Amino acid sequence: MSHIQQTAFIYPLFRNPKAKINAALPFIIMTIVSKPYQRGIYCNDDSIKYPLKLDTITPGMLAAITICCTLVIISSGEAYLVYRQRIQSNTQFNQYIAALYKVVGTFLFGGAVSQSLTDLAKYTIGRPRPNFMAVCAPKVCTGYMLVINCTGTPEDVTESRLSFYSGHSSFSMYCMLFLALYVQARFVAKWARLLRPTIQFFLVAFAVYVGYTRVSDYKHHWSDVLVGLLQGALVALLNVHFVSDFFEKCPKRSKRPGTRDGEEPERKPSVQIADSENSNHYNYHSRGTV
Q1: Catalytic residue among 168, 221, 281, 285
Q2: Please, which domain of life does this record's source organism belong to (predicted)?
Q3: Which residues pair with 42 in a beta bridge?
Q4: pLDDT higher at 21 or 188
Q5: pLDDT at 249
Q6: 193 to each of 74, 189, 196, 198, how far by Cα in Å?
Q7: Are 49 and 172 in contact (CB under 8 A)?
Q8: How far apart are CA 174 and CA 117, in angstroms?
Q9: How far apart are CA 244 and CA 239, in angstroms?
Q10: Cis peptide before 209 (omega within 30 of 0)
Q11: Which of 18-27, 31-40, 174-183, 258-267 has the highest mean pLDDT?
């Protein structure tokens, strides 16, 4: 199956708003209804005895940074391309709104898939976080305990069983790599040769930094962060390759001699002839014939 056929098959799935909701259903259901798997623990396991520590990158901070970066990069990129007439749509609505809807729709679809896969693993595996014992604060814990009576708040104890794999890492890597690939596909002008890799470096570096902080804050084991980064990167790559049209070749517009790449030739106003019947060569009537 060619890339065009794959896109033609998959694109209607995410273009429908119901597809985005369906992709996010596992995330919504597990967050509201489900409880994580109650995995037994060894009380002498030093890997879950780390102290409590505040988040370096809070969920609200991560959401704010990723949303701001997404809005700035995508809105400016699509505005530039529509202004330069390098992307066109058959829609009857505004060209910029249509282009923005396609990219944002693709981004949201992949984000819903990534978050659903993350929560599916979290609630199914139920791995204790490195600070589980500090959050649980059990009165009695000896040897291996399948059921442990925690004195901490139920919400915090439930959250302390969602270590594998890191949601911060998967979400940040998905968002940043998606934007990095978007920049690679859209910022193709000569003046962006140095700007493009610079933006991509800072985007991916931020995602990796988020993963580092989850280990140093004792919220995840290093393997949780590694798997989260790989999962976010994989979803971003598959989403861009199979769903988006970022790297599809657009037909080149014919240009007149003397014009540079991306420049429109100067258009001179045409003189409109009032007598269209006599001036139209398709309706030529010979005069003086019998």
Answers
A1: 168
A2: Eukaryota
A3: 144
A4: 188
A5: 66
A6: 18, 7, 6, 9
A7: no
A8: 12
A9: 7
A10: no
A11: 174-183
What's the CA gap between 242 and 8, in Å, rounded? 9
Alpha-carbon distances of 240 from 10, 11, 34, rounded to whole Å = 12, 11, 31
pLDDT single digits (tens) 69-86: 999 999 998 888 887 766
Closest of 108, 86, 52 to residue 263, by C-alpha = 86
Structure tokens given for 113 = 């898939």
Report how far residue 196's alpha carbon sits from residue 194's, in angstroms, rounded to the nearest whole number: 6
| Residues 6 or more apart whose Cβ sits within 8 Å of residue 102 | 15, 89, 245
CB atoms within 10 A of CB 13: 14
**Most confident residue range from 73-77, 141-145, 173-177, 251-255:** 173-177
Active site annotation includes 221: no
- Which residue from 117, 115, 79 is spatially nearest to 96, judged by alpha carbons? 79
Q: DSSP letter for 179, please.
A: H
| pLDDT tens digits, 95-128 | 888 888 899 999 999 999 999 999 999 999 999 9
Q: How many angstroms separate the CA atoms of 95 and 83, rounded?
A: 10
The structure tokens 């959050």 sit at 135
* pTM for the full predicted model: 0.76
Whole-number Å distance between alpha carbons of 209 and 265: 47
Three-class secondary structure of residue 6 per DSSP:
helix
220 catalytically annotated: yes
User: What tokens appear for 10 in the block?
Assistant: 């998959």
Q: Catalytic one among 3, 220, 221, 285?
A: 220
Work out the angle at residue 140's Cα, subtended by the Cα atoms of residues 134 and 144, and round it to the nearest 5 degrees.
85
CA distance 8 to 6: 5
